[in-house]
Amino acid sequence: MTDPQSLMDRLDRVESELAIQRLIHEYCHGADKQDLERFAAIWDDDAAWVTSPDQRFDGIEAICAAVQEQWAAFKEMHHWTANFVVDIDGDRAVGEADVAVRVQLTDGTWVRGGGTYQDVYVRRDGRWRVARREVVSSFEEDPLPPGIGSPAD
């Protein structure tokens, strides 16, 4: 027989993992659908978004400004995350996910790429948020000619 505290701990872990998994998906939906409110909602107030070794954005305001710059540079963006794993320790967790990305440049060219996200999550006031997301192992494939590789293909 399992004691009630063990059941509560297990339930908290399952709910936490699902909430964190939801953050991963909301990141993609917010970025790809250019939904700033949805994108901003995943981040902790003092979060850091490290998009490359020489680009780091601190705080929700800077993170939102950075994604808006991406939206100006790309007509469309599509992110798919996979291979998500997370380790939860109380109100802090670390996770990793692989990502495939396809973006359309303003000239119509499609570019494919991907990488790995390494994340830190925190739970404050009962809600999980991304405290840090770092893009590691990123790569780009050769640009595709206009009209090739669009989501409708």
UniProtKB/TrEMBL annotation:
It comes from the Bacteria. Residues 13-133 form the SnoaL-like domain. InterPro entries: NTF2-like_dom_sf, SnoaL-like, Steroid_delta5-4_isomerase. Pfam families: SnoaL_4. Gene3D superfamilies: 3.10.450.50. This is Uncharacterized protein (TIGR02246 family). It comes from Streptosporangium lutulentum. Signal peptide: none annotated.
